Amino acid sequence: LAVLALSRSDAADHPRARQGRELIRDRAIRTGGWNYGNSQVFGADLRAQPVPTGMALCALMTGDDRDLP
Length: 69
Description:
Shape: elongated
Mean pLDDT: 88
Helix content: 40-55%
Strand content: 5-15%
Radius of gyration: 12 Å
Strand order of the largest sheet: 1-2
Number of strands: 2
């Protein structure tokens, strides 16, 4: 949500917004999508959930990630 708020206030290129997008990319689940926290627990992959996946995709669309597959 913070990344989305920064982008709405024309601060999508702010260092904190870039760090936020890096964190979001880091938490992506290997099979695709996002969960509410880490992508793994005790070495097991978690299942993606619709709401955090949608929020992550919206946040990633605010920066340089717009062109990523």
